Structures are given as C-alpha cells and as structure tokens.
Amino acid sequence: MPLYPASIKLVDAYGRSTRRGFLLDDISIASAVTNLGLFVTALQDVTMLQVVESKVSSVATHSGAPTANANRDEGATFSVALDTPGKYASVQIPGPILAARNSDGTIDLANEDIAAYIAFYTSGLVTASDGETVASFVKGTLDA
C-alpha cells in the first residue's frame, strides 16, 4: 500500500505549538484521511495538549481546547520494537495524560487510552517516522 506523509499540530495551555510527523500506510488518500481522523481521536485521548491541525496532503482543523495546565514541554518517549529483528525506534507524545503516568516516571502501556493509541502503530496503519512497521511498544517513560 502507498505511504501518505502526515502530520499533527498540537498546542499547549500556554499557546505554544509542536508538530509530529509520520507516515500512514493506507489503501487510498480518502482512507488515509479517515484513518488520520481516528488517529487524532486516539492521540487526543492520551495527550493534554489540543490537536489543532492534521495533514495528509490536505489540512483538517480540530476544535477544542487543551486541558488546563497542558504543557508542550512535558512529554513521553516510547521505545518501540520494529518488524526488523533487533531494530528499535522511538515514538513521542507531547503532554501525556495524567491518568497514564506512573509514580516511577513510566507510562502505563495498559492504560485504555494509551493502548488504543498504541494499536494504531502495532496494526501497521501508522508507521515509525521512516516508514517502518512497529511490532510492539517496549516501554514508555516521561521525558526529563
């Protein structure tokens, strides 16, 4: 299937923005746009920032406001195993939700919203930034 470059722009409670880029492995641009919308919903469930824009060869805007005290400087980094044996990459979420944060600085991969977000990667729909398929999420930690 073709790979569609995509990106999502998020804003924190202080008006600062950040952008995340990735590739969608999908059957058509129409399907990629639909699946990007579903991915945005999953991302919005795991971040305190507000998604304000997403792109797959076109722009879609998203309404809403960031969670109170959402901060783009806070983040979580996930170590992911790729389909290529022995190869790893990282996936980041700005402003991860409080419900998924463990007291030891790790992210609860079993949290319902985090698990729904992870499923987009492990299904192959969303790939690592270089287009490689994610086999599993190994661990998640809060950024220092």
How would you portray this structure in words?
With 144 residues, this protein is α+β, with helices and mostly antiparallel strands. The protein has two domains: 3-61; 75-142, no CATH class. The protein is 19% helix and 35% strand. The chain has helices spanning 29-44, 112-122, and strands spanning 3-11, 17-25, 50-55, 59-61, 75-82, 88-94, 134-142. Strands 2-1-3-4 form a four-stranded antiparallel beta sheet, with helices on one face. The protein has a three-stranded antiparallel beta sheet with strand order 6-5-7, with helices on one face. Strand 3 (50-55) and strand 4 (59-61) form a beta hairpin. The longest helix has 16 residues, at 29-44. The protein is globular, with a radius of gyration of 14 Å. The termini are far apart.
What is this entry, summarized?
It is globular, with a radius of gyration of 14 Å. It has helices at 29-44, 112-122; strands at 3-11, 17-25, 50-55, 59-61, 75-82, 88-94, 134-142. With 144 residues, it is an alpha+beta fold.
